[in-house]
Every structure is written in structure tokens, then in C-alpha cells.
Hints:
The chain is 50% helix and 16% strand. It has helices at 18-29, 60-72, 86-94, 108-119, 127-145, 157-167, 172-179, 183-196, 202-211, and strands spanning 9-15, 34-38, 50-57, 76-83, 97-102. Helix 7 (172-179) packs across helix 8 (183-196). The two termini are 32 Å apart.
Amino acid sequence: MLQTNGDRITVALRAQDPVSQAGVSSQLRARPEVEVINWDERNGTDAPQVVVVVLDVLDDVALRVLRQIQRTSTARGVLVTTHIDEQQLVNAAECGFVGVVRRAEATPERLVKVIGSVARGEGRVPPDLLGSLLQQVGRLQGQVLTPHGLHLTGFTARELEVLRLVAEGYDTADIAVKLSYSERTIKNVLHSVMTRLNLRNRSHAVAYALRQGLI
Length: 215
């Protein structure tokens, strides 16, 4: 279970070299908003909310480190790195590192702000990377997903339409008439959604879609 020390955010720090470890640790320990522990010193009583990893380049070796952290900790991740591009940003996010700070911009104030955002479940990345990433996502949706009837949400257009109608109170027969499908098709669509997402029933599926902002 994630722990805090009062209102302070517990932060585990892991750097690829002792100089970076000492430098970033010194910056953060001076801040009252966070409590810093070294990654290797963590234990069950002070499981960190956030882990900060400091490295130069997000190469294959670094990615293995991030994946290992993801497997062994519930902490959300902040990455401090010298260089990162859009694909590396995606790779970091897949490992649970949704906060990214370039080393040249890693002032104590900036680091603490990003750590706070990530602790609240928000993502923070450099604005120029975010713009490029959104363009990349738009190309993916338009060129790859849309031609196959898919969305970035992981639902097909038909699945979302069925869930919307279920949420509006329509039964299987009504939905089949409205969408010009057979009742068997509507049942199969709902069964596929519930099985894929491990949902208990239709109400659970609708609740999930509402929480995710899909309908």
C-alpha cells in the first residue's frame, strides 16, 4: 500500500551514476513537499508513491530497468533524462513513467511539480513532445485504426454504440432494431466486451465505459 509521511510525497530515487544520484537527492531533500529515499533502501513500511529515475538515454538497457521497476513496485514513475523522442516517450509511458523532465530543465521546482502531478495520477511531459505525440496519435487513428473500425480506446465503433444504447435503457431486441443487427450479434458484442475487460454484467460494462469517459 502506498504510504506518505503526513502530506509529503514519498519519493524513491534511482540514478544510473553516483553523481546524478547525489545531485538530484540533494535537490529534492531540500524540498518540504517530498521525502526522499534511495531505491535500494525502500521497504514494506515506506513504499514510495513515486519513483524518480535519472538517466542519459532511454535505450534498451534503461527500458529493462523501467520494466523491472514496474513489475516490482506500485509507485508511479518520473523519468529525468538528457534526451527523449516521441517513441521513447511512448515506451516510458508503457512502463508507467508518465512524468518526463529533461535534465536541462530539471530545477528543484520543476521536479517537485512533476512529482506532485504524477502522485495525483496525472501525466506531465515537455510541451514540444506532447504536441508531436498528439500528431502521431492522430496519424495512427486516421491511417491504421479508423479503416479497421477501431478507436484508441480499444473499443470498436459498434461496441461503443451498443454500450450507449444499453446505458439509455434499451434491451437487446430494441438495440438490434435500432442498429439493424440480429439479437445474436448484439449479445455477442456485449459478451465480447465483458469477457475482454473481465466485467461481470451489462451494468458493469456500462459503468466502466462511463468512468472511462467513453459514453
